[in-house]
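hiii so um. not sure if this is the right channel but i have a protein structure encoded as tokens and i wanna go backwards to a sequence. like what aa goes where. can anyone help
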């Protein structure tokens, strides 16, 4: 693997673990707010982000490379409402989509076909991640300030279950 490509994958591994950390911090904040459904949703998102990091990590291992783990920053998570939190999720996922696209561009420029194939999965996943966040924002906007509406959305978020492991 070329060093430019390897560095770019190591950076993305960091970004995925950083995302996991942000969502775990959001989960803790929702626990404080007594919104256990949203806390569950964020905890599952933490697992998913960790799985994304490991997918890239395993790709490097399979290609005989050594992943180099980088610093993960302390997550700064302060939000006042569930709507505010999920708007931040959407904004963050748009940022990650941009990172994945940039990584794909490196893979194309460096003619790394195996990495391009792996990244097709990530490109699709980002469409889903943004779609999921947008749907939750829509529900929260409909619920507005109503306690009953928020209760129902929280209950729905509580039903999110971990995804089955998929084969690459
Ligand atoms: Fe791994 Fe939410 O992007």
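sure thing!! here u go:
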């Amino acid at each position: 693997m070329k060093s430019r490509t390897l560095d770019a994958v190591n950076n993305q591994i960091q970004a995925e673990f950083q995302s996991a950390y942000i969502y775990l911090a959001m989960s803790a904040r929702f626990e404080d707010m007594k919104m256990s459904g949203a806390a569950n949703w964020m905890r599952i998102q933490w697992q998913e982000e960790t799985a994304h990091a490991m997918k890239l990590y395993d790709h490097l291992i399979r290609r005989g490379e050594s992943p180099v783990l980088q610093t993960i920053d302390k997550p700064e998570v302060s939000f006042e409402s569930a709507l505010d939190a999920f708007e931040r999720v959407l904004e963050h996922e748009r940022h990650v989509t941009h990172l994945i696209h940039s990584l794909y561009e490196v893979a194309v420029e460096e003619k790394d076909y195996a990495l391009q194939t792996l990244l097709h999965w990530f490109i699709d996943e980002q469409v889903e991640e943004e779609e999921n966040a947008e749907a939750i924002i829509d529900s929260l906007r409909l619920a507005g300030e109503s306690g009953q509406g928020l209760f129902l959305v929280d209950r729905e978020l509580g039903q999110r279950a971990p995804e089955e492991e998929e084969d690459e």
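oh and Residues 16, 19, 49, 52, 93, 96, 129 surround MU-OXO-diiron (CB under 6 Å).
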